[in-house]
């Protein structure tokens, strides 16, 4: 698999840019995606909390809306699992009907959706470690500067 590729903007800053290597990476439009109407209440609340922050940081574009929506859906399922754990507890009566206690299935739901949320959040640079690997989208002036460098300083 190897290392993740370095964004061109980072190579320019480090002085390691080569004109013969990947320089035409996609740059989706910086348009705030709309919260999908299928997100449940808690997921929509999380969207409304995170989307403006990610957009302002340059980490959310028109193409990232679905990814953020899925991440917020995992959040909503996590919250529902936590509510069930609060109501019924960690141990619940088993399905056999013999009165034996078993681990509440919401524990596994919480675990699975927490892990999924963390993976999506890392893609948006939402933890200290992943933030070191995520570059935000440069503004238009920076794009012109980058183009000039790649052309070798020509106008």
Describe this protein's structure.
The chain is mainly alpha-helical and 155 residues long. 52% of the residues lie in helices and 4% in strands. It has six helices and two strands; from the N terminus they run αααββααα. The protein has helices at 8-14, 41-56, 65-88, 106-123, 128-131, 140-150, and strands at 91-93, 101-103. The protein has a two-stranded antiparallel ribbon with strand order 1-2. Strand 1 (91-93) and strand 2 (101-103) form a beta hairpin. The radius of gyration is 22 Å and the shape is elongated.
Secondary structure blueprint with pairings:
Blueprint: H1 8-14, H2 41-56, H3 65-88, E1 91-93, E2 101-103, H4 106-123, H5 128-131, H6 140-150
Helix pairs in contact: 2-3, 3-4
What is the terminal separation in angstroms? Answer: 38 Å
Residue runs with pLDDT of under 50 for 5 or more positions: none
The coarse silhouette is elongated
- Biggest sheet architecture: 2 strands, antiparallel
Number of helices: 6
* Biggest sheet strand line-up: 1-2
Could you tell me the strand content as a percent range? under 5%
Q: How are helices and strands ordered from N to C?
A: HHHEEHHH
Report Rg. 22 Å
Helix content: 40-55%
What is the tally of beta strands? 2
SS class: mainly alpha
Q: Residue-averaged pLDDT, rounded?
A: 83
Give descriptors for this structure:
two-stranded antiparallel sheet, 52% helix, 155 residues, mainly alpha
Provide a compact summary of the structure.
The protein is mostly helical and 155 residues long.
């Amino acid at each position: 698999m190897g290392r993740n590729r370095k964004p061109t903007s980072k190579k320019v800053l480090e002085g390691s840019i080569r004109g013969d290597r990947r320089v035409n990476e996609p740059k989706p439009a910086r348009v705030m995606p709309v919260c999908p109407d299928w997100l449940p209440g808690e997921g929509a609340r999380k969207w409304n909390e995170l989307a403006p922050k990610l957009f302002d940081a340059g980490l959310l574009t028109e193409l990232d809306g679905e990814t953020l929506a899925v991440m917020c859906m995992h959040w909503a399922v996590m919250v529902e699992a936590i509510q069930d754990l609060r109501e019924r507890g960690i141990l619940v009566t088993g399905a056999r009907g013999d009165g034996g206690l078993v681990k509440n299935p919401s524990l596994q739901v919480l675990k699975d959706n927490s892990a999924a949320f963390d993976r999506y959040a890392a893609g948006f640079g939402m933890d200290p470690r992943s933030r070191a690997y995520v570059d935000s989208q440069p503004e238009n002036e920076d794009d012109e500067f980058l183009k000039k460098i790649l052309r070798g300083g020509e106008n």
